[in-house]
Amino acid sequence: MVLDETIITRAIIERFTEKLLACVDLDVAIVGGGVSGLVAGWRLGQKRRKVAIFERKLTIGGGMWGGGMMFNEIVVQEAAKHLLDELDITSRPYGQGYYTADAIEAVTTLGSKAMKTGARLFNCIHVEDVMVRENRVTGLVIGWSPVEIAGLHVDPMTIRSKYVIDATGHDVDIVKIFLRKNPPAALFTETGGIMGERSMWADVGEAQTVEYSKEVYPGLFVSGMAATASWGTNRMGPIFGGMLLSGERAAELIEARLATE
Ligand code: 48F
Q1: Counting atoms of ligand 1 from 1, which one is nearest the CA of 128?
Q2: What is the pTM of this model?
Q3: For the domain bounded by 24-70+104-260, which CATH number is listed?
Q4: Ligand 1 within 6 A of 55 CB?
């Protein structure tokens, strides 16, 4: 067989277009292929929902690759150990109620498991805006990250979605954009705005991040550090149980809504 470069080119263009076209109208659009976004995608994929994750970097995994201070081990507490087991991520007990896992194995396995459910993942795509109709977030405005990095003036395109999850981490990018572009819209938070992440307190931060992984505005959910930042709870540092559980919680809340539609 003689390899034909134009067939290779056609294959890539056709298959990618097919994949993207299948995601123009979604049940759930997740912004950020970090820890909580991947877990949410995995859970919603398991429910056979039409879900896609948009990640602006070339790589998924967000803040998990580097464990704590680039020591590539993560710590997970007892409450989230079942997720490591279900994902088939190898873990070892450390002291009473703590487990460690290799950060690289955790990211790669989570990414693979999420995709195997049918959740689609698009890297190099920067979400730069949301669609809003009748006081509800109804989708995303997306562009290529290199276009943004190069500062090129190229118009973006849109993805419609019944629900959006802001899983953009510390930046809480999507909620920020939403507030900036839609005054006088207010979030469900105490102040109506982004309350801001507070200093490190692992015990409180872990519990509250999971609790606050919920809807901040009709159609718009937050998970992970975006939940911490939106609702003004403490950061937790390099313990990842809360991140895993927060993605799961956002997915469960959305699944409950979708199931009643
Ligand atoms: O940072 P990240 O992993 O978010 P997370 O799920 O997890 C936080 C932990 O990794 C860690 C921690 C645990 O103790 O504190 O930091 O809250 O992943 C966020 C992802 O979102 C992408 C970003 O590149 C990263 O991979 N992202 C951010 N803004 C955008 C975006 C955007 N506008 N469009 C697309 N992707």
Answers
A1: 33
A2: 0.98
A3: 3.50.50.60
A4: yes
